Amino acid sequence: MYKNLLKWSLLLSVVVALCLSAASYAQLTTNQQQEWLTSPAASSHVGNITGAAKAAALPYRRYCVGCHGPLGDGNGENAQWINPKPRDFQLGIFKCRSTPTGTLPTDQDLYDSIGRGLDRSNMPSWNALTKQERADLVAWIKHFSPRWQNEKAGTPIQIPAEPEVTADRVKAGQEVFRKMECWKCHGVQGMANGPSAATLSDDLGRPISPFNFTDGSRPLCGNTDTDIYKIFMTGLDGTPMPSFADNIKPEEAWDLVFYLRSLQPHNAFNAKEKQIANQLGLKPVNPNAPAQ
Amino acid sequence: MRMWAQSHLCQQPQQVRSVLAAAFALIFLILGSSRSASALPAFARKYGLRCSACHESWPALNNFGLKFRDNGYQLMNDRDAPIWQNPGYWPVTFRITPIWHRVSSLQQVDVYTAGNPLPTSSTAARITSSGFDLSGLDFHTGGTLEKNISFYVLPSSDPTAAFHFESVMARLDNIGNSPWFNIKVGRFELNNLLSEKRILTLTANGGVYQTYHFIPVGDGNIYGQMGDNQFGMEYVGHSLDDRTRISAALLSSNDGNVNLVTGGNNYSGFFTFDQGVDFGKLGVSRFGMYAFVGQAATYYRTTGGTPTTPGAPIPGSGIDNKGFSRVGFTGQFYFGPHFDVNVVTQHGEDNAWFGQGYGNPIAPSNGSSTASCTSPVPPPGCTLDNIPGVSVLPMGSRSPTWNGYLVEARYVYSPQLIFLTRFEAERMSQQATPGTPLNLGNVTNYVIGYRYNPFMTSRAGFAYHGEFNLFHQDGTGPINALGNTTSINTSELLFGVDFDF
Questions:
Q1: In a domain, A114, yes or no
Q2: Which chain B residues in 174-233 lie under 8 Å from chain A, judged by CB atoms?
Q3: Chain A closest CA to B139's CA: distance in Å?
Q4: Average pLDDT in chain B
Q5: For FRET with B47, which of A123, B114, B245, B306 sits at 20 to 30 Å CA-CA?
Q6: pLDDT values of chain A reduced to their tens digit, one per residue, 292 residues
Q7: Which residues, in sequence order, are bridge partners of residue B331?
Q8: What is the dihedral of CA A220, A224, A229, A230, to 10 degrees?
């Protein structure tokens, strides 16, 4: 009797657990998602890793669904508490890209965003996940938007080699900052307090703040000089930050990188720029000064 | 949080128990359809991540959770400092588990004869009891005081609400902006890759890792217990992606007890290293080693003693330190997102003085004056005070040594449902006293269970928990009618609702 009771109890508990679990799992595998899983865009390619969307169903549910929602529309249960709001994958619009404005990011771009995280947001770095898991998640994310079935990712922009930092370049960068009217949003000292700062909103009409170069924040899409360069030349799609690829030359973009580095507090990347700025005694840009 | 076995005689008829079990199952089915709970666990509430982001199944950590913990409960973005939180945010979570459990074990039972109100003898008899019960209550509070300054405080109670501080620690993180330099001070969870503080099982014998607590029969050393939180200072370093982890802790040899009642002036070291390897679709598997080496006192100065009564040990007066060590291998092997196996091996050794029962002063000092403790093989819990010039080791005494093995397999059906099974074996390789049966005290432990979370949000944790445990220890059970010492054979069945808010 004793053994029978144990066996009966164990069997019953397992059956109960399986029934409840099956009901829960059914919520994930809707017809719509099954359709996504069989679409041609159900893969990603990052280096020599091929990601499979189907393999990411569980990781997405484990790590991402709370913010991005089961349908990838950015309406997870936490979205209401988060600012900035989680990305709506259904729109297929991404800030951090190596591709021209208006185009889809590459798989590598999405992979990098997952691994790096997005500073000044609730999106952490997921580099503790395996490379395969991240590649699978890229494939999964792509399923949420029909754009990937109709368009190809943009071609990454060409980035010339980073030149040597010089005083002339830092000064030239300041002039680009003035001429391109970056100060209108970012402020004359880069403190995110330009005259337009309070009026900015993203494509969905949600208020958005410009980047403050002086408070120690890390740039959204990476903190290397190349990452900052890419922001000017690709823009942050979905935000008021445009691409300046048609307005400034590559060498001017590098000048601007060096000048913006000089506005940042001391960090691991800007020792030379800060030294030059101090030697030059750079003052905040004068919006009314004549062009040099 | 582990449950404690009850040992009163179950007098209910078998039929009644079956009906109760059926009713219990029905209750679970009904509860299974409810989704009403919603709450704010401390870290999930702060960062807006679901429990499953950090936990394979709460409280066991996955790789992302391990990295989060190693970074001092920080995601390492600019939202880590508490200034980003609503002023009303208070990082507190409580956890408690109402349960139904059934315990069956051999116990020493008095035997009565007709007409005699006093027992005439005793024997070994199986006692089975069951009923609804409660775990203790944990209040977890932890997080950041400022960027890169973390804390964790865990007042914890037993089922009667008698509280103690299970964990109290502050941590300086990423010193010099390097993940390789982190310092922790206080009473804290040891940096075990497979931590008992994150165990997924709850029964008395299945809710602990036997390998982390094993001591030979009659051994007086309570200080090498890796499953207990310990007092000390710990250095932890890890790579940016947390694949490589090292730690070194300087600990007081007092097994986490306050006020130095179990010693003073003696220290231990706990050292770990583990390396994660990305095996692609299989996942990240980890391989590691650990060593717990130290010394602890075997003699305590006493006070209040007379020529006829022993004195009480003076806290912190422990001297005549003797050594002990626990060294082993740990591995976490992932075979895809659904299946993983955790392995721990251990070789343990205590100094011969510990092996003869000297050590723990929580037991009465000068216990050598009691008859039971002068027997060739002192029973568990009997500890002796090594009095210089008086105490002498029995002829041939030697250091007890043993080997432990732990294998835990987990099947993760989904982030909300996990099944697990664990097998542990502790085997003596040398007894302290020659002639003692080599298998005396050997432990074999088996547990199987599941945890099912009917919902998964960043607001609360709630799991239906089911578990069955079998525990066996050679030669330490009650004495049977023939005068032979039996082995301990205990089984436990537990169902509960484990929730935190």
A1: yes
A2: none
A3: 24
A4: 85
A5: B245
A6: 445 545 655 565 555 555 544 444 444 445 665 666 666 668 999 999 999 998 999 999 999 999 999 999 999 998 988 888 999 999 999 999 999 999 999 999 999 999 999 988 889 999 999 999 999 999 999 989 989 888 999 999 999 999 999 999 999 999 999 999 999 999 999 999 999 999 999 998 999 999 999 988 888 899 899 999 999 999 999 999 999 999 999 999 999 999 999 999 988 888 888 899 889 888 888 877 766 5
A7: B287, B343
A8: -60
Dump the DSSP string for B163-206. Answer: EEEEEEEEEE-SGGG-TT-EEEEEEE----SS-GGG-S--STTT
Superfamily of domain B14-500: Porin (2.40.160.10)
Q: What is the DSSP string of A66-93?
A: HHH-TTSSS--TTGGG-SSPPP-GGGT-
pLDDT computed for residue A125 by the predictor: 93
Which pLDDT score, from 0 to 100, does residue B2 have? Answer: 45
User: What contacts B116, CB < 8 A, 6 or more positions away?
Assistant: none
Three-point CA angle A132, A135, A136, nearest 5° = 85
Q: Could you say which of A84, A115, A150 is where a domain stops?
A: A150
| Residues A97 and A200 grouped into a single domain | no
What are the residues whose beta carbons fall under 8 Å from the beta carbon of B192, sequence distance 6 or more? B212, B226, B272, B290, B330
A74 & A143 share domain: yes
Interchain CB distance below 8 Å, B77 and A120 = yes
DSSP element (H, E) containing B292: strand B284-296
**Tokens describing residue A133:** 């898991």
Q: Which residues of B touch A24 (CB under 8 A)?
A: 414, 416-417, 454
| A50 contacts chain B (CB < 8 A) | no
Query: How far apart (Å, rounded) are the C-alpha atoms in residues B411 and B420?
Result: 6
In a domain, A82, yes or no: yes
Q: Which residue among A89, A119, A150 closes a domain?
A: A150
Yes or no, beta carbons of B21 and A55 under 8 Å apart: no
**Does A142 share its domain with A47?**
yes
Q: Which domain holds residue A204?
A: 167-280
- Quick one: A99 and A203 in the same domain? no
Q: Which residues contact residue A60 at a Cβ distance below 8 angstroms, ignoring those fewer than 6 apart?
A: A68, A137, A140
* Same domain? A185 vs A236: yes
Is B193:B272 a contact under the CB 8 Å cutoff? yes
Judged by DSSP in three states, B422 sits in: strand
Reading the block at residue B250, the tokens are: 């300087």
The ipTM, to two decimals, is 0.80
Question: Lowest-confidence range among A66-80, A224-238, B17-31, B216-230?
Answer: B17-31
pLDDT tens digits, residue range B54-69? 999 989 999 999 999 9
Are residues A203 and A99 both part of a single domain? no
- Pairs of CB atoms within 8 A across A/B: 141
Domain contains A29? no
**Shared-domain flag, residues A192 and A111:** no
Chain A stretch 105-144, residues whose beta carbon is closer than 8 A to a beta carbon of chain B: 117-133
Position of tokens 């105490």? B391
The whole-angstrom separation of Cα A55 and Cα A57 is 6
Q: Residue A235's domain is classified under what CATH number?
A: 1.10.760.10
d(CA B494, CA B499): 15
For the record, the structure tokens of A26 come out as 């059914």
Confidence class for position B427, pLDDT limits 50, 70, 90: very high
Q: How many domains does chain A have?
A: 2
Please tell me if residue A161 touches chain B, with a CB cutoff of 8 Å: no
In sequence order, what are the residues at sequence separation of 6 or more whose Cβ sits closer than 8 angstroms to the Cβ of residue B384? B220, B356, B357, B358, B359, B366, B367, B368, B373, B378, B391
User: Does residue A2 form part of some domain?
Assistant: no
The letter for the amino acid at B360 is: N
